[in-house]
Write a structure and sequence with these properties.
With 323 residues, the protein is of the alpha/beta class. The protein folds into two domains: 3-199, Alpha-Beta Complex (inorganic pyrophosphatase (n-terminal core)), CATH 3.90.1640.10; 204-322, Diaminopimelate Epimerase, Chain A, domain 1 (Roll). It contains twelve helices and twelve strands. The protein has helices at 3-14, 28-45, 100-105, 134-145, 151-164, 175-186, 191-199, 204-215, 232-237, 248-253, 284-289, 307-322; strands at 18-21, 49-53, 70-72, 84-88, 108-113, 124-127, 218-220, 225-230, 260-266, 272-278, 293-294, 298-303. It is globular. The structure holds manganese (II) ion. The site of manganese (II) ion has 6 residues, from loops. Manganese (II) ion is lined by residues 29, 89, 114, 133-134, 164.
Length: 323
Amino acid sequence: MDKIYSEIREKIEQADSIIIFSHVNPDGDTLGSNLALSMVIEEEFHKKVDSVYVGNLPNIYSYLPSFGRFKDVQTIKPDKKYDLAIAVDVASKDRMVLGTNIYDNSVNKINIDHHKTNVGYGDINLIDGDAACVGVLLYKMFMEWNVKITKDTARCIYTSLLTDTGGFKYENTTSDTFILASELVKKGVSPTYEFRSCYETKPQSMVQFQAYVVSKTIFYNGGKIAFAKITRSDMSKFNATDDYTEGIAETLRTSKDVEIAAILKETKEGYTKVSLRSKTVDITKIVTDFGGGGHTFAAGCTIKKPIAIAFDKLLQRVQSELE
Ligand SMILES: [Mn+2]
């Protein structure tokens, strides 16, 4: 067994209290990975695990097995000391927000991730920037550990793979992706059921909200750049929750000439959250300039400026990248 897998296994075996963190604004990868790892640790190692999220827990993933186990980090005493903390899909420590202290206070810290920008903030870092999702890393680890992968665990890993490859179509989709998908289907996963549960259960107001935001898109540089703004009043008009914005930047990128697409969302006063997507340009350089992170073609950042100013600053930076 590769040394790192036995090290992680040892830490789990030694721990009496374990906490697993998902990142803020959780997606299918961080949630699916959290559940898969939590279930394996409980079933195979007979340890109790607290599976936590920070911020909001999107209801769209409630079809996942044992979704009900997720706890809001705010329900945990901030001075609680765990034997082991594991972060899954958390590119940087600040993405655990209120949970960062609990993570830091833990006796042992493990960081399992596939973001190229991850600096390795754990004591043990299982990071592979070429992995399609964290689910891939977990599956490999479970194989090395020789543990049983139940249908429920397989479903969670499948969602992690499905969502981070954008439904098996992003650049990170490789022959390994399909080999893993095939293994998971053999364990009882239904691709149709998971796809419908994940992508075809939007509330009506979400469909209308997304169409509204897309209709406000402004194109620049002969159609190579597409930017759309979401204000707080747009959010309240549609009763939108944070997950309503998911996938809109990808829709903007479907335009033929678009190289870089951005969704700028007004969060609290003076803060603008940016989701950036590109077809061929490495956008990690752009978001790093604004203190963000992510993947080559899908990244994000928060700009501490009102939305109109953030819009101009980001547009300038994106335009300079395309020159
Ligand atoms: Mn991920």
